[in-house]
Amino acid sequence: MTRQEWCMHLDRGLEQNPQPNRPKMIKVPLDTHKLVGQRFRMLIVQGAMRVYYEDKEQVLFVYVRCDCGVSKWVRSNDLRAVNKNGEWRVTSCGCYKREQSRLRFTKHGMCSGREAARRIKREKRDKERGKVE
């Protein structure tokens, strides 16, 4: 990633301040950081940036790329943190959670749309009526 691309990512990633009452921040890109190149579950760290807020709080953000190809900014603490259930706070860009949800709510693996659901209901109804093919 070139220096120009890196600065564009910095401007796009954290310029929008989600909390309007949050104090102003100063963004400092870090070209070399010990996390760059490391893998955390499905994420590979590609860059880092330290953000200083007016209230003396400082946060390290890292730019990560998921195995599915999506890139996003994540707080570095979230890469190592575990939630109450003992699961990692950040495992991927969100694709892992979507995949697990899809697997959890699919009963038999054959339902992939409206037509498939109708076909399954029709087969079940026919089986109950004794019209088994």
Short précis:
The protein has helices spanning 3-14, 76-80, 95-105, 114-129; strands at residues 25-30, 39-40, 43-53, 58-66, 71-75. The chain is α+β, with helices and mostly antiparallel strands.
Structural write-up:
The chain has helices at residues 3-14, 76-80, 95-105, 114-129; strands at 25-30, 39-40, 43-53, 58-66, 71-75. The chain is α+β, with helices and mostly antiparallel strands. The protein has a domain at 3-93. Strands 1, 2, 3, 4 and 5 form a five-stranded antiparallel sheet that branches. The longest helix has 16 residues, at 114-129.
Walk me through the topology.
Elements: H1 3-14, E1 25-30, E2 39-40, E3 43-53, E4 58-66, E5 71-75, H2 76-80, H3 95-105, H4 114-129
Antiparallel strand pairs: 1-3, 2-3, 3-4, 4-5
What letter string, H or E per element, gives the SSE order? HEEEEEHHH
What's the β-strand tally? 5
Mean pLDDT over all positions? 78
Radius of gyration: 23 Å
Shape: elongated
Count of DSSP H/I helices: 4
Share of helical residues: 25-40%
Which residues form runs of ≥5 with pLDDT under 50?
A: none
The major pleated sheet works out as:
5 strands, antiparallel
Strand content: 15-25%
Kindly name the structural category.
Answer: alpha+beta
Distance N to C terminus: 60 Å
